Write the structure tokens for this entry.
Amino acid sequence: MDEKTINEIKEKIIIEIDKAEKSIIEYKEITKPIAPENAIGRISRMDAINNKSVTEAALRTAEEKLSKLNYMLTQIDDDNFGICAKCKKPIPIGRILLMPQSRHCVNCAQ
């Protein structure tokens, strides 16, 4: 890969890391326990518990993505960066820019 492409990918990873960190902060705020003294009805409380479960799953996904992005940022100068971890073929630049945390090409990711 040329230097311009590597810099473009690096910028994209940094932007995605920033987005993931902001999402994590937001999800952590949303998943805080609901105080029992808050007078909400039984149905509303059940709905809040359900929403909390969905948000906790989104939090785990965001944390996993952040971890992968940080790893990819450390690997960007490696000779094997942009090579599929499974089939060892080059990953198209479009995929890297779309999903910079992915270590696999489209075929191997399925």
Summary: The radius of gyration is 19 Å. The chain has a mean pLDDT of 89. The chain is about 65% helix and 0% strand. Helices lie at 3-30, 42-75, 93-98, 106-109.
